[in-house]
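Bug: token stream looks shifted between consecutive jobs. Job 1:
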Amino acid sequence: MHTITAARPITWRLPVVLLGISGLRLDRGTRYRPARLLLFTATAALYYLLTPVLTTPAVATAYATAVWLLYYGGLSLTLGGPGRTALIARFGEDRAYAVYEVALGLLFMNQSFAQAVVIYAYGDSLPAAIPSWAAYVIGAALMAAGTFAKVWAACTVGLDTYYCRDMFAGRPLKDADGLVVAGPYRYLRNPMYGAGNLHAYGWAVWSRSLEGLAFAAAFQLGIYLFYHFSERPFIERAYVRS
């Protein structure tokens, strides 16, 4: 996930970062790369096949709600509960992290697709008083700003931090310098959680989806709850007080 703690800032190649924040990591070795690619491709194909069903309003709402619960509930239970220690005890830290990051990558994919199907299912629900040109202009501006902020932040902290590797290990990474103050972190405390989520609002505005705006807010609230109850206590314990 996106955390304000990190190892020494690293600039990744843009395509690797874009795929990484979408759920597919190609920066971690080659042994499991074919399996990761196959899983990513198969999941995307399954989304495509199920789109006619998932984009009906009732199913889209249920699917997005389930993803919200699995994403933030599962993340909190794994990183802040017994899930992490159980995985490490079963597989060892390196293999356990590999399992965790694949599962988290799938949740990243589902989070994006869940918001997409809600927006599609509930398109054109904004008040008619808002002209289409305004929705397109505002939506495009928000999508551009949010995507730029998220990619910039991910390039600054690296994908290991994006996937909360330090929290999974329960300690700072080996080359950690503490809190990041470079890139967008010079201006914002949580650029991924704040500005980085503007793209979801922009997509909803572009599609004139009132329900899409509501789910974008719900997913942003979920990540801030995770930060408040799980991530910030870890940051203070591992980086601030150490």
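Job 2, same session, no restart:
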Amino acid sequence: MSYKILPLQTNRQERNKFQIPLNTIYFCGNSLGLCPIESEKVVNQIIQEWEQNHIHSWNLAIQLPLKVGNKIGKLIGAEENETIIADSTSINLFKCLGTSIAIQKIKNPNRRSILLDRENFSNDLGLLKLLSTDEYKVRYFDDENQLEDFLNDDVVCILLSHVNYHHGKLYNIKKITEMVHKVDAFIIWDLCHSVGSVPINLTEVNADFAVGCTDKYLNSSPGAPAFIYVNKKHQNVTWQPLTGWLGHQSPFKMSKDYEPIVGIKNFLVGTPEVLPISIIDCSVEITLDAGMQLIRKKSLALGDLFIFLMTEKCPSFKLVTPFEYEKRESHLSYQHENANEISKWMRKRNIYSDFISPDILIFAMTPLYTKFVDIWNAIENISDIVKNVESKNFDESCVSLN
């Protein structure tokens, strides 16, 4: 294993655009990003517009899902009007699965298999419960190397997370998409843990569908709506299964007959959440301004430093995430038998990471605001905590280093 700390030169001050908790080291950007300073101003502005312009403010706000969706589209390499902000990741998966099945009924009506990675993030796959088990079957594969053996002319579609949230492996989106298309199946990419972390080009790889949340590396508000990407070639073949009023050709006619709007807007369902989408707008602007290539460079450099120092100072931790650049993104998963206890003591020292039962700690570095010195300071503390935990020499006096 060799280490190469990448040089990173930038005059940008992205960190200053976020509310950074005082005396805190934050490695939870893969779960919830920090709050952009501009978001408070944006929320107050929306409320003032509502107060002053009442229903007239709605005429502009109703365009937000597509406007902001197109900005996210730039981060994932989508063409104009292929990405829209709507609902949650789980609901968007429901739409993608339903649309995939409906199109395949037209193209390849005898297909019955839906493939899932056994370690996919536990999003709600409620649509699969509604399907007749006699008609459709869900097949699970255990890793990328098995996938090719599962692909055949019975496959409708495959749902796969671009980044495995548990061990942090980054999948080869181009290679896998090409593999799936060879059997004329569709692929739905879950980008929750990669959007805003690694450069993505869905147009280049000819992806079919994608979903993703906005509250992780895109740093929007907790519970903010997600996004959905639909390749233009799939947008007008059939309806998506949730025929909500805003996906109607003429929503304000209140017609009893549903006539789907043409294009990506058909993947809207209900009224857009104006306040959180406005926050997404300002947070995505920060990412676009920084540029994904620079973000990726700093991400790898931060990760290299973290791995180097953990190997040197905390050898009892086992790195679970692949070391190779092409197989990792911004979060590193480490295994330790005392992970839960270590995590609790870290929080007492205001060092935040994610814990996955029974023994995994996840350290997510968000290049927009994580500093290199944060890593040095964090690992000095973690090393001290591990020594105390392993020696069973812990009490409240160990909360902070002198």
